[in-house]
Amino acid sequence: MSKDMITSPSAESLAEAVRAAQGKGLPPVHKWNPEFCGDLDMRIAADGTWFYQGTPINRFALARLFSTILRREGDSYFLVTPVEKVGITVDDAPFVAVDVEAEGSGAAQELIFETNMGERVVAGPDNPIRVERDEETGEPRPYVMVRDGLEALIDRKSFYRLAGIGTEHDGWFGLWSGGAFFGIIPQADLSEG
């Protein structure tokens, strides 16, 4: 969230604007360029829980609705409607990949992720998988691109499943999906562990 003032738009006014503008599929937030209205007291926790004014948003449909108007610009996140643009806080990634299915094998394999908001995405060149490693512990933090710069943190159970189907390619242990290979760890580092 930026250092600007907390603004007057409410979660309810944003939800109403989105419902009015929504058709089939995701709203065209990339085409909407309203003036920045300030920051809203809304946060997405690292576990994917949405909070409004410090209280969890327990209605999945409302959190899902907000997720459809989320836009990333640099390191900042905004909820965007045709008439409002408000900043929100995202602790890590805005989504969590809570499940993964593998179809096919080798270079023809497709990894299909499902997010905590019900979106499904096939990893590939446009939706890459990347893994960050904690410098002190070496613990991996895997992500998959969902859309337009918005990533999902891959949950632990899904990452373990991915590790179980990983393969070696060009000196890396990693995963094939959508015709692309995504290195998780150099093969040499894996052998040391």
Describe, in plain words, how this protein is organized in 3D.
This protein is of the alpha+beta class and 193 residues long. It contains four helices and 15 strands. The chain has helices spanning 11-21, 60-67, 156-165, 187-192; strands spanning 36-44, 50-52, 55-56, 70-73, 76-80, 85-90, 95-103, 110-115, 120-122, 129-133, 140-147, 150-154, 167-169, 172-177, 180-186. Strands 3-2-1-6-5-4 form a six-stranded mixed sheet. A six-stranded mixed sheet has the order 9-8-7-12-11-10. The longest helix has 11 residues, at 11-21. The radius of gyration is 18 Å and the shape is elongated. It starts with 10 loop residues before the first helix and ends with a helix. Residues 1-7 have low confidence and may be disordered.
Distance between the termini: 39 Å
The beta-strand count equals 15
Rounded to the nearest angstrom, the radius of gyration is 18 Å
Specify the helix fraction band: 10-25%
Strand line-up of the largest beta sheet: 3-2-1-6-5-4
List the helices and strands in order: HEEEHEEEEEEEEEHEEEH
Contiguous uncertain segments of 5+ residues: 1-7
Could you say which overall geometry the principal axes of the C-alpha atoms support? elongated
Helix run count? 4
Strand content: 35-45%
Structural class: alpha+beta
Q: How would a textbook summarize the main sheet?
A: 6 strands, mixed
* Arithmetic mean of pLDDT: 90
